[in-house]
Structure formats: C-alpha cells, structure tokens
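Hello again,

I reread your note about wanting to compare the complex against the isolated chains. To keep things tidy I'm splitting this into two emails, and this first one only covers the full assembly. Below are the input lines as submitted, including protein chains and any nucleic acid or small-molecule components. They are followed by the predicted structure of everything together. The single-chain runs will come separately.
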Amino acid sequence: MPYPHLLSTLNLGFTTLSNRVIMGSMHTNLEEQLDGFVRLAAFYAERAAGGVGLIITGGVSPNTSGILAPNRVILSRQQHVAEHRLITQAVHQYPTKICMQILHAGRYGYHSQIVAPSAIQAPIVPFIPHALTENEIEQQIEDFVVCAGLAFDAGYDGIEIMGSEGYLINQFICRHTNKRNDQWGGNFDNRVRFPLEIVRQIRQRFGDNHILIFRLSILDLVENGSDFDEVIKLALALEKAGVNIINSGIGWHETRVPTIASVVPRAAFSGITAKVKKLITIPIVACNRINTPQVAESIIADNMADLVSMARPFLADSDFVNKAKADNAEAINTCIACNQACLDHIFVNKVASCLVNPRAGFETLLNFEPTSEVKDLAVVGAGPAGAMFAIFAAQRGHQVTLFEHSDKLGGQLNLAAKIPGKEEFNEFLRYINYTLEQSTVNVKLGTSPDLTQLNKFDEVIIATGTTARQLDVPGAQHSTVMQYQDVIEDKVKVGNNVVVIGTGGIAFDVATKITSPPPEDDSFKTKQQGFATHWGIDLNNKNNGGLATAVNTWVNSKQITMLQRKVRKPGAGLGKTTVWIHRAELKRNNVKTLSKVSYQGISDLGLTVGIRGESKILTADSIIVCAGQQSHVTFDVNQFKQAVHLIGGANNVAGLDAKSAIEAAAWLAAKI
Ligand code: NAP
Ligand code: SF4
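Full-complex prediction:
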C-alpha cells in the first residue's frame, strides 16, 4: 500500500477512522448563502467521496455572542438541526466521519455583542468586548454543551472544540487576554477551568461514544501566551476530562508571524506537535502547510503525529486521498498556499473557492458534464486561462487543440514560481503539464496559428494573456530601464540603486526577488529553522507563547524605492491575508515608497519625477518597470467566421490575476 502510515486506520475504541487524513475546519461562507446547507452538503460529500477519513466542518457558534460576524451560523436550537442533517447524511454515504467544530469567537467577533474574559480589545477588531460575569461564564459553558448535543442529534460523529487561534477559549487560557482575579483567571488552574468544564460537562451529559477533538494552541505566537509546560499540563488535563484527539493550533490570528502562507515552509510546525505527542497518550494531529501525501506520510511515519489535517488542500483537490491510495500523487492538484480564492474571499464576504480549482464551493453550480455536442475547439495561449480551459473542456468530451507560441505551458505562472516564497506555483505547473499529458488535448507548443488555421475549428478561445505596459516617458529606452520579466528570469543584472515603477502585485514580487538571498540550502530542516529564526519563533516554546527575537540572517545591500502615481497603500490590490507579510518583508529590507509622483523623464542622472509640485531626480542604476498589463490580442476577432471567446487577460485586465483568469476559463468550459 502506498503511504502505509497515512492510509492506515485509527481505532478510537468506539469508532474507527478509515485513514489518518483529516479535512481540517475551514469557513467557506457557504453557510450564509440562501441554499447554503445544500451547497455545503455537496461540498463535503465530494470530499468524503474522495476518501478523506474525517472531516471537521467550519466553525459553528453556540450562541449569538460567539459569532465571528453578523449572520454567521449558530447551532443553539432544535430547529437548526435539520439543515445540519443534510450535511451528515450526504457525508455518511461514504466511510468518512464528520465532526462539527464549535467556535466561539470571543473578542475576535466582528460585531458589537462580543464577550471575553476581560474587556481588552483585540488589535484586529474595532470593538471592545464585554467582560463576562461569572454567571455569564456558566451560561457560555451551558451553550457549548447544548450546541454539542444538537450536533450529535444532527448526526455528526463528534465535535471539535475550537480552543486555539486566539478565540474565546484561548482567551481564557492565556494571560495575554485573561486578567481576571476570580476562579476563571489568575493562576493556570483557574485559566484552564473554562475549557475543562466544557469538555467535562459534554462528556457527562452525552457519554463517551462521540469523537471529541480539542484544538489546543500549542504555539500561541503572542506575548504572554502559554509556554510548553502549560501546553502539556492542559493537554493531559483535557485527556483526563475525556478528549479523544488533540488537534494542534498554531498562532493566534493577531500574531505577526505567518503561519499558513506560502512563505511558511511545508510542515514548519510539525516539530512542536511531535514534542507534545511524546508526552501525551491520546492521538494528536499535525497541521499547517502540509499539502502533499509525501509530507503527510513522513510526519506519521516519523512518529511526529498520529493524524494529519489539511484544509485548503481539499479545496484544491477533493480527490486527494483517492489519488494517494492509487499511488498517483502526480495527479493531485496541489494547494499552493496562495490564499487568493479561499481566505481572501472570506474577508470580502465571498464564498471560499480555490485558485487552482474554481469548482470548490460551487459543486452544485459549476460542473463539467459530458457534452451532448462534441466540438472541435482551438485554444490560443496556454497560460493559466488557456491551459485550464483546455483541461476542463476536454474533460467534457470536446476535442481541444491548445496552441502556445512559447516552448512551455503556464504563461506567467512560470514567473510567479521564480519569486522566493512562491515556489509552490511549480506544483500548479506540474499539475497542468501532467493533466494535459494525460488528457486528449492536442498540445502544440512553439506554434502561433494564423486565421486560416483557426478557421478550421468549430469555435476559438483566445487566451493570449497580456503584455507588460511600457513606460511612456522621454528616455524610456535608456540602458538603466528594465522589464520585470527580465528581472524575474535573471536575464539582466540589477544594480544597487533601484527604482521600481509601480506598487502592484508584480512590483511586490520583483522587490521580493531582488531583496532575497540567493536560493538557500532547501533541506527540510534548515528551511524550518531558517524560517523560525527569520520570523522570531521559538519552536521549543520555552516562554512567551513561542515568540523569540527575529534575526535578520541576510542583509540586503540594495537601496530600493517603489513609485506610484496614486495615493493609496502600496500593494492595495493584494489579498488581506498575505499583503501584511510582503509589506513587513519590504520594510525590513528598507524598501521606500513614494506616492503621488509623475514621471517626467529618464537620463544618465536617473529618473526625474514630479512630487509635491517640484521636480526631483531619483538617481538609479536600475529602473524596473512594473506598470501593469495590457490585453494582448493579435487577431481581429471580427474576422472569425465562427464563435470566438476571449478569456483571462486577453479579455480584460481590470482586476485580472491567475484566479480570475482560471475562473473565467472554468465557467466557459462548463457551458461551451
Ligand atoms: P497592478 O497590480 O494593476 O499594478 C500596476 C502598477 O502600475 C500600479 O502600481 C500602478 O500605479 C502602476 N501603473 C499603472 N499604469 C501606469 C503607467 N501608465 N505608468 C506608470 N505606472 C503605471 O498590476 P501588476 O502589478 O502588473 O499585476 C497584475 C495582476 O496580477 C494584478 O491583478 C495583481 O494583483 C496580480 N498579481 C498578484 C500577485 C499576488 O501575490 N497576489 C502577485 C503578482 C501579481 P499608479 O497607477 O498609481 O502609478
Ligand atoms: Fe490553496 Fe490557493 Fe486554493 Fe486557497 S486558493 S486552497 S491557498 S491553492
């Protein structure tokens, strides 16, 4: 059997999990849609069909004070149970277990009714929480117990109690947020009374035959967080109180340390899970940045954890486990940890989906059904839009020919993969190459078809992408001026005094590239430790919530200034969940930004800009143009005799990125 440790069963006594793979909890925003539970049922059922051993739902709150934002889902009354049954029945068609996560946001709720152990405002929320009275704490515990009972009524195999990530329970556990001096605060025993009472009372009322997972923060990554001794003491107390499985929680949401973005090395935090595992007897789950069966297998084989949890990888590929079982990991559409369509969507109240798999979250709406009318389709351009369109359309049974003028597939994805911290894009390129190879698509690299050739097809899809916008100022051809593609591909040597024109996604990528050290030794261990040193993480969690002093192990010698004409925060178009990381890195590298500039000309002296009514020369030995994109369409679409479709950058550059290009490709492929 491939991945023998990962795919082995786990016997919990009263029930058995079919393998060691958990689809971790993740909010999808589907709950809040009109037909949300029908869509959620289809979403989870597809993952169950894909072979995952255990699913943990997105967080469900036990009462109104515990919701994360207005209109979020609550399970507090019998009347709420029926809609949850849609989910459990759909999942139980397969040998997959499902647990509902109970999440009380505490001071992280984005509304005015929030509560917490103490009235201390969270840095990421504009509301001050009400400090719970002792009676109110008892009521909160009762609400957790009632919620658990309703979840069991709804057919869930168990529950996960969310005790990490800085939510209410975590707020009780840590001195960071618990300043009480009654029996619920002060010393350790008092601070952990709240979670332990919740667990004890649930077990007391509903018995032992339900899975009870506790998500325990093993590394808070905030000041005055728990230390390792406290983590172990609480884990052992939870075990005694009746918890079956400990899930590892890493980092509060307010932490200044990245915990899930692509800059985090794979399995970066599994080492601390392994340390906890040694001291407890119940199974423990490793999580965060685990995205391949190989990494997951090695964690279990090396006895670092008993189970592995992945959330985003199941958005990227619902069939992850089945493909692993078939020993066909190459066919897995790997999560690249970009956050662009999942977490970033949640922050703007959109349904969570996936950049590499736009069907995620849209299982009832976006389907690639076999076509009743096979068409001969020409796709011009094999960037993300063209390549993914070809894959989806061929899946439906269309005959597809994919033309690409260059010698490789993937277009600008090839540039993204060269940016330090974005190497996971290589996985998406691997998936595209492999899937096209296995498909019926006729791929023609190094080919630019003309109108006569294209006119032989039933329909034509133009996915020729974009070209970089050129700088339109006197001296734009000066030898110091460089195009971003050449910089990213190391075709030019960048000097030490650099001006970057633009502050968008590509300008950030370029600045990251030129301020990063040369590719380091990429051994698993070195990367983990290097990451921890760079971001100030004490992976032994000796004190202070696992925080240590961040150390600059690389000194950037370049002076860099990024310029924009508008007045807005640089990188304003980037996703909320990752832009802060990029900004922090550029700040560390002393990258300066100038806004509200006008470009006047380039000479041997440098770039002349207008700023605050004056002209100023910015001396520069390298001026890198990252001034946005323009649609690149080499055909007059009116000359085609058949239907022509423009997708991705060829259609529109406003708001364009790989995510929107692939999404457009998918919807067209589903209906063509
Ligand atoms: P962009 O994000 O639209 O940024 C274009 C930049 O060029 C802006 O800073 C703009 O600033 C400047 N600009 C526009 N017209 C100009 C002109 N005529 N002369 C000089 N400067 C001009 O575009 P991009 O950086 O090319 O990125 C393309 C797309 O890929 C974007 O949607 C981006 O979000 C996405 N992307 C995303 C990531 C990611 O990590 N998520 C990474 C790379 C790219 P002013 O107009 O203020 O001067
Ligand atoms: Fe992973 Fe990106 Fe898809 Fe989110 S959008 S699941 S991070 S690949």
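For quick reference: The chain has a mean pLDDT of 96.

B.
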